[in-house]
């Protein structure tokens, strides 16, 4: 299904959080697609040196800006804090680089409206992946194994930026991992606090842009290091 | 003799610096002064390092000093690393506070009628 008011109406007070760093080329399109369905979109500009904030603002998003670059995790947490301040009933997170699809978030909203889950994680491995390199697929599979091992969860995709949660969950999430390790940390906190969660299939489209912009494979080691240090520091 | 005078002067410098750090937790300062006193003793009576080393099960006093130095270096590195992480968290909180306190809302022309609006000011 598609169309403006329908899903926005399913969760009328939903805020969509879009963390963004140096996404001036694509953020306008991403915001316009989201705004076609969801009226409340906040882009967290993570200290971008380019035109990201202005493009997002011109496309109709609310923009909050980090004065310096902190990382995707810090930007996500800032978005959650801001959305809750606006009185959000639900908060979604959505990648800025255009790899997600608005229809998937609509379906997640419909599922959330049934009221029997607190968090919905998007899973590209339950859904469809377009143009994903084999090395990235292998790395993400290993990340899933690691996350399931350390959290006791049963996920198929641990590092998907498309998620939907209730305000209650958003208010109890406290991400200390400023970098990409926040995805595993978020999963861990959801499980630790006993929230009801499910995964839903989503489509992820890798483009030349998103692959060039995205994580380098060797960053997996850094994420692992961040998670290990995080065990000792809170 | 020359090196003993030099090391003693350096220890005295550290001691003076320690005395100036009145805000430092007193057990930590006491520990520093004890270490300086031990330093003076072993600088002027180096043969005693061998005696202490033998008690600890190490062959030579110089080896014992190297082991202690390595352990202390690792402990200090870990302490500083954890401290940097905590400072970074404070820094993150500050940046986040500034961000959410100063949101930018789209101009009415850039957005649809149901776009979010800044809250009305409550100040006079």
Write the layout of secondary structure elements.
The complex is a heterodimer of chains A (234) and B (124).
Chain A: H1 4-10, E1 14-20, H2 27-35, E2 41-45, H3 52-58, E3 62-65, H4 72-85, E4 90-93, H5 102-112, E5 119-130, H6 134-151, E6 163-166, H7 167-172, H8 182-192, E7 197-205, H9 208-213, H10 219-230
Parallel strand pairs in A: 1-2, 1-4, 2-3, 5-7
Antiparallel strand pairs in A: 4-6, 5-6
Chain B: H1 2-20, H2 26-44, H3 47-56, H4 61-101
Helix pairs in contact in B: 1-2, 3-4
Give a structural overview.
The complex is a heterodimer of chains A (234) and B (124). In chain A, 43% of the residues lie in helices and 19% in strands. By secondary structure, chain A is of the alpha/beta class. Chain A has one domain: Spore Coat Polysaccharide Biosynthesis Protein SpsA, Chain A. In chain A, helix 2 links the parallel strand 1 (14-20) and strand 2. Residues 1-7 of chain A have low confidence and may be disordered. Chain B has one domain. Chain B has 4 helices and no strands. The radius of gyration of chain B is 28 Å and the shape is elongated. Classes of the chains: A alpha/beta (234), B mainly alpha (124). Chain A binds chain B through residues 35, 39-40, 42, 44, 53, 57-68, 70, 74, 77-78, 81-82, 85-86, 176, 178, 229, 232-233, and chain B through 82, 85-86, 88-89, 92, 95-96, 98-100, 102-107, 110-112, 114-116.
